[in-house]
Amino acid sequence: MRKPPSCGRRCRAGASSCTCSYLQVTGHGIEASLMDALIAASREFFRKPVEEKQAYSNLIGGKQWQLEGYGNDPVKTKDQIMDWSDRLHLRVEPEDERNLDRWPGHPASFRGLLHEYTASCKRVKDEILRAMARLLELGEDDGILNQFGDKGTTYARFNYYPACPRPDLVLGIRPHSDVCVLTLLLMDEHVAGLQVLRDGTWYRVPPVSDHTLLVNVGVSLEIMSNGVFWGPVHRVVTNSEKERMSLAMFYSTDLEKEVEPIAELLGEKQPARYRKIKFRDFVAEHYEYFSKRERVIESLKI
Ligand SMILES: O=C(O)CCC(=O)C(=O)O
Ligand SMILES: [Fe+2]
Description:
- By secondary structure, the chain is α+β, with helices and mostly antiparallel strands.
- It is built from five helices and 15 strands.
- Strand 9 (194-198) and strand 10 form a beta hairpin.
- The structure holds 2-oxoglutaric acid and fe (ii) ion (FE2).
- The site of 2-oxoglutaric acid has 12 residues, from strand 6, strand 8, strand 12 and strand 13.
- Residues 152-253 form the Fe2OG dioxygenase domain.
- Pfam families: 2OG-FeII_Oxy, DIOX_N.
- It comes from Urochloa decumbens.
């Protein structure tokens, strides 16, 4: 596992680019051929005619938005600016709660590849969260994993950004922090787009090669660690020449679990810095704030 260079203006990645907010993981043991095949299969899905993709829509009856499926974000207001991206958002864990009718049946390899990738990423995620528990000096290595509750949930989100004729007018994904505990991001190796906000400046995250995974702290972990870890604000910009793809695996707690600072980290001198919130409500509020381009976590700070 390779730690990126130190933070902020001293970033060695260059004045306009930054990898400081993300941990990069190489040598993770996930087969490169599996990653390539899954990205190729999802690219094939996104290139299908819209009518075919609509069969997996995230709008029930063409109207009511749900998290899972193919489509875009919920539309909250008439003047909401939409993102320039196509998404496929699928619950992959718990395995017995998968809605396979939302999983593309074509190409035929897609479901098997996603199943395999989910199992491989789980190992990587567990190892990272155990290392992070040690960094927090928790009594046990599973100190963060134990916070997930009985039914920790994992969503895979395939992001497809077609080339955009007016990149000056629209973003691929507007500024946000991930609401989950941890994200494992597989980015396009050739096309840049991800940017991270530091001290009021947007820094470009350069594309990474060799099947490197980017690890992003989500705001659930920011709360659990009582602010020791921080969920960076990031966005994706578009470009007029090339399409781009990414695959994010979002690891979240049980929907019924309260997300709160880990008790072991609190004391007289370290009071809780965040209010607790049930994860189900956290997700709902996240989308309310997201549509207004605000961060839900700000409302939980004490
Ligand atoms: O496409 C990317 O590089 C980032 C995607 C992202 O931030 C997300 O899916 O939450
Ligand atoms: Fe994100």
